[in-house]
Design brief:
single chain, alpha+beta, four-stranded mixed β-sheet, 4 helices, 4 strands, 40% helix
């Protein structure tokens, strides 16, 4: 993910946790709050997800999916994606579909099919799209 889209700073994360709205899925929870400008995304995987190798793998996968979703997500918000322990055993396509559904439930996804196509190209999985 490009640096201009990264959410950073402990105070920013704390503020979004406290004031933000939530939308939960099977493998992750989305916390979002309006931003002064732009779009920023932060990825969090706590120790319940697994050891450091597993947590970093989950975060890398979610970052890649989020990077490809950026054109399809509503601008002007800060987003935090919190991985659940079940995300450690999920495959890439399941994480993608779950992130799309979480954004859609929050009302922040412009085009769900377009977002999924942005990740998979023409090889869209047969799961619930």
């Amino acid at each position: 993910m490009q640096k201009k889209y990264r959410l950073s700073g402990r105070r920013t994360f704390s503020y979004i946790y406290a004031k933000g709205s939530r939308s939960a899925g099977r493998y992750m929870t989305l916390i979002y709050h309006s931003a002064r400008r732009g779009l920023h995304i932060g990825i969090v995987a706590g120790k319940k997800v697994g050891k450091s190798v597993v947590r970093n793998k989950v975060k890398r996968r979610i970052k890649e999916i989020a990077r490809r979703f950026i054109p399809c997500v509503e601008n002007g918000y800060n987003y935090i994606v919190v991985a659940s322990p079940a995300a450690a055993k999920a495959d890439f396509s399941s994480l993608c579909l779950d992130l799309a559904s979480v954004f859609e439930r929050a009302g922040k996804l412009k085009d769900k099919e377009g977002a999924i196509r942005a990740v998979f190209g023409k090889n869209v999985p047969d799961k619930d799209v």
